[in-house]
């Protein structure tokens, strides 16, 4: 934005020599001078031009005196802020000077005029005018910038709103697809159970129909055993898929308040054969407050997977020791399950929670247990962390958000 800092001065005096001498002094400093020989002529100029930084007005003029001219000038709203300096050859009394100030004068300069005093006084008012208009111009610039910014913000807000609506629509579509997929997986896994059971039954019936001598055939028995193993794995996979969908759907189902230690004991009863066969030793530590509001079946599934994994992935060189620690902070109930098993590579921390991901093949499993554990925790607004070291063991820390 171009800022005009031209300083215009209106010089009013009935004598041409005064106009010439004063104009010559001021034009040296780059001021633009307009002249008038009377108050009437000055008022005509001011009707067309109001952008004067200063008016130099002779007090004694033939038609309208300087004081009367000043009074007429200041009656117009557009002109009343222009400062007026009176020029006079007389030394008036205080009462007359006071009348001049009442008429709008801001100062007096006495004739004969001292050029240095004239230039100094004009300079003060010229600087006030220049800086005032610079501030006004800057303010206008800021207003224009603010208007552009508001337009930009409004446009951006509209774009973001449209994007949000689009994302919300996409989210709803994805949610519908996801629900449809869950329903399909659940229905498929449920509907496939009967055919698999039928195949298992038909195999048993077929085996019963074989002649006794044929059942002694080693190759045939190997094939039958492989079919049975495949059917068993298929059934396990179907059960796992069903559990995954159930976990996805039941975020807050079966929400109750109960003691975590009771769940741990229930899990230990369910896997007592595994515990007895491995000789696993348990150590449970808590801070006294072991109550939680959660889905009982989901928490049981969580402990079942973590504890059974701690036993399954035990080291052959030592008795499995399983430590369970229960504590809490302001946000979470923190449950840690640690073991002294074979551990795994710390670089695989994130991969172990992927569906069907298995890091060790020497242990039977489908690779969905930890996926289900993480899904349970994620659905409840919590988090799960793991620390591990190969051949030394692992610690899974579950953070359940305090209700």
Task: Assign a percent range to the helix content.
Answer: 40-55%
Taking all Cα atoms into account, the compactness measure Rg is: 48 Å
The helix tally amounts to 10
Please name the fourth-level CATH homologous superfamily of the largest domain: Histidine kinase-like ATPase, C-terminal domain
SS-based structural class? Answer: alpha/beta
Please, could you describe this protein's structure?
The protein is an alpha/beta fold. The protein folds into 3 domains: about 10-115, 3-Layer(aba) Sandwich (Rossmann fold); about 175-250; about 250-400, Histidine kinase-like ATPase, C-terminal domain (Heat Shock Protein 90, 2-Layer Sandwich). Helix content is about 55%, strand content about 20%. A 5-stranded parallel β-sheet has the order 2-1-3-4-5, with helices on both faces. Helix 9 packs antiparallel against helix 10 (about 370-380). The chain is rod-shaped.
